[in-house]
Request: fold
Amino acid sequence: MRRLRGSEPMRRLVRETQLDPAGFVLPLFVVPGEGVRRAIGAMPGNYQLSIDELVKECLEARSLGLGGVILFGIPESKDEMASGAYADDGIVQRAVRAIKREVPGLLVITDVCNCEYTSHGHCGKIVAGDVDNDATLEWLAATAVSHARAGADIVAPSDMMDGRVAAIRRALDAAGFPMTPILSYAAKFASVFYGPFREAAESAPKFGDRRSYQMDPANAREAMREIELDIEEGADIVMVKPAMPYLDLIRMARDRFDVPVAAYQVSGEFSMLVAACERGWLERPRAVLESLTAIRRAGASIILTYFAKEAARLLS
Ligand code: PBG
Reply:
């Protein structure tokens, strides 16, 4: 076996998995204001950005050849009804318009969820102490339509309500956006690895947790059912999230379904690697590329990653 490992040209010739910046999507956090570039403590190198700063980041993403960006919004104020999520002049809607105007050609995905917009931090409408599924679908559908109207190329629901893909598809079609694809966070687990994100997006639930709607980390077959249902409801791309602790599910999804499979290398995965690198325990460029290669090898053709820009530079 060692004959084909003797030199880099030889290894390159027989390499089975290639990384391409076109498959990387960079998550970005947008906040109100101007000239804001607020460092996120638990995610070194990531920022809450006002729209003007966000545009700069997007210009860089485009020049590095990234597949796109995915936007998360932090609104001016939060309420019980998540009104900021579906407002036509909401933070994400304004950000999308600015990017479309100033960074043409960059693919813009929007995260469709309520947790950044509700005063209680849950992903939907609270009825009798829990998130009410069907009432929440109306907010999600309205949010997706408002994003599409602003110019979003893809909408990506991350709330884990049942039936949201069908509800969003129906609403998009009815509103005149039959060509806007849905990237569904189909198998999204109630994971501890979202911790740093909740600081970034100011979206930690004020009571309880998300286990009544996000999946139990122990369940693989159930994940396949989630994905199957989302495809039936009209999802164009399905996602497994987190990525590294769930490589088996990325592989299962790739083998079973013939739609593009995405994976989200989430905030906690990013922060663990960065922390170990900062301590000198891991070598950063290799840690970045090996982690992404593993996710790609498992079967994800699209990777949402906070390392998107860094990895693109390393590959160039
Ligand atoms: C919103 C959402 C979350 C993430 C993406 N969309 C947080 C959550 O569900 O609590 C996590 C992303 C990350 O950790 O990088 N529902």
Notes: The mean pLDDT is 97. The chain has twelve helices and twelve strands. The radius of gyration is 19 Å.
